[in-house]
Amino acid sequence: MTETKTLKLNYRRTALIGFAFFGILLLWQVYDSWCPTFLTDIFARRMYDMSSAQLKNSDPDKILNVQWIVGIIMACDNLAALILLPIFGNLSDKTKTPIGKRMPYILTGTLVAAIAFPFIPLFFHYNNIVGMIIMMAIVLMFMMMYRNPAVALMPDITPKPLRAKANGIINIMGYFGGAFATVLGIFMVLSKYINASDTDRAKMLWVIELPFIVASILMVISAFVLFFTIKENKLAEELKDEMDLGEAMAAIETPVDDDRPMSAANKRMLLAILGAEFLWFMADNAIGTYIGNYVIYYLQSSSSKTMILTILGGVASVVGFATAGTIADRIGRKWTISSGLAITVLAYIVMIFAKPTGVVTGEHGEFSFPVILFVVWAIKGYGMALVHNCSFPMVVELCSSKKIGKFTGYYYAASMSAQTVTPILLGLVLRRTLAWGTLPKYALILVILSCSVFTCLVKNIKAKKVANAKGLEAIDGD
Question: Which of 264, 364, 380, 451 is at 20 to 30 A from 205, Cα to Cα?
């Protein structure tokens, strides 16, 4: 009688790897929450010689006219990422150093980005648009050096069948990072700074500077925790047998062979996943890029409400990441992702009908916010967590351990190309329609298309050759 072999996920080690993602989401949460509003205000001054707060009250359509320029700047960042992520992924695959193949890029990228990051609000405060954009570019370039190798670290030392659960853990760690920035945003209220007179702004630099400084400090700490606890070369040797076992039970149509071209079946699956990913990232990034301006300029509410949305979405995402691996074990990664996209469609449908309550009550600020959006963000957060948790493991399932950085580059090439296109496209749409209500409709159409592509073209494959450990047996005490 043959004994069934089992694979066990080391939860402690996976959580430590998650410190890499902690730093990534921490920085991007601050970047995406503050920078579009910085750009809106600074371009309003250049184009109309008025602050965005003055325009909001006197001629709100001009705020929408500025969004296409904001979109171009945000898209240029993503265009650079589209080029740099595959490069650094490929380079790290081929790198050999005493501290590993990913760690040199993680440490260098973190330190330089952390130094440059606090200069973004400083240059904004002094109305220096050139300095601000240069700092944004430096941060982006070195975060791309960091991001691909940091994300590739998990599949480097996690067998293929366990990667969905492992990805859930590192995403939860990432959301803890984002939570630090979000809580700061509730107390460091960006809208108060934006709405203040120039005289009052001169005394309020700390309101916009503190979140960036805290993000930089925590990012450096997370990188050093990762460096001192995860020894890449040693783990690669210790886990060789487990990685080989995971390769044998990969959920793919045909086995991966580095000595042969990628099979037609695996190539079709890869292209279908990346195509659907492109569409859902177009939707998700559109909402993420413009929600801060949507709350301030359309809902006429406080920016602290954006931070509460982010917290609710983050909590729901943590629940999604915690449950996605178990759901995928039962119904497969394909149907887990399809379910997440369907849930997100529902959220955007509800968002379309959420109107600023100030239109009815005449109130603005904290009390002009439609409460239903809190529910929408929780639903969307859970749905997209199911999607993100299972999609990356599906991509790196299609390659061997020698090409994880390269295939991580493919994954991010799809997401970053979407995030390059969508801010410009949506900015032009907003300029054409002059209606903030276009935002949820735009996202809804893209998620429906993504769900259609993914459900119709991606094959559901469940690994059955080797059982995963269950219950207490699955907890490795090392």
Answer: 364
